[in-house]
Design a protein that fits this description.
Shape: globular
Number of helices: 5
Distance between the termini: 26 Å
Structural class: alpha/beta
């Protein structure tokens, strides 16, 4: 968690300096991204909210994305990560949306992705989507790696 908070502190400094806000949608990180941001003093200046969108029901209720709205998308994919980030940005009317969706392990997901697969996206003044494959089935290690990578992706885009 210490590494995650260290990255979150850098993110916080950038968001505060830019007077920008963020909302987070995460799945296989289980709230670690939001927890990392919330661990930094002064978080109320930039963090508007977050959601753990782990199931179809969570997607429907928390993200207001219906099954019909998922046509052409599948979970744990770059387009879905981009959809989630954009949805958080618009629903919270914030500068940045950050999302993560994947398979932390110890097994893969029902879409055929192996454990260690994660897609993440930022939506804001800059937009970027990426896929990470750790090659590991260590659930806790993957969760931390996914969260750190998502925060680093955000930081990279805040530094542009």
């Amino acid at each position: 968690m210490k590494e995650l908070v260290g990255i979150a502190e850098q993110v916080a400094a950038k968001l505060i300096a830019r007077k920008q806000t963020i909302a987070v949608a995460e799945s296989s990180t289980g709230g670690l991204i939001s927890a990392s941001l919330l661990a930094v003093p002064g978080v109320s200046a930039y963090f508007l909210g977050g959601a753990v969108v782990y199931t179809r029901d969570a997607r429907r209720v928390l993200m207001d994305i219906s099954d019909e709205g998922m046509k052409g998308f599948r979970s744990s994919s770059e387009p879905y990560a981009q959809l989630l980030a954009g949805q958080m940005r618009s629903r919270f009317n914030c500068d940045w949306g950050l999302s993560e969706t994947g398979a932390s392990g110890p097994t893969g997901n029902r879409y055929g992705d192996a454990a260690g697969h994660s897609c993440m996206a930022v939506a804001g003044p800059a937009v970027e989507v990426m896929t990470l494959e750790t090659g590991s089935n260590d659930r806790l290690a993957n969760m931390q790696t996914f969260a750190a990578t998502a925060l680093k992706l955000l930081l990279k885009n805040l530094e542009r």
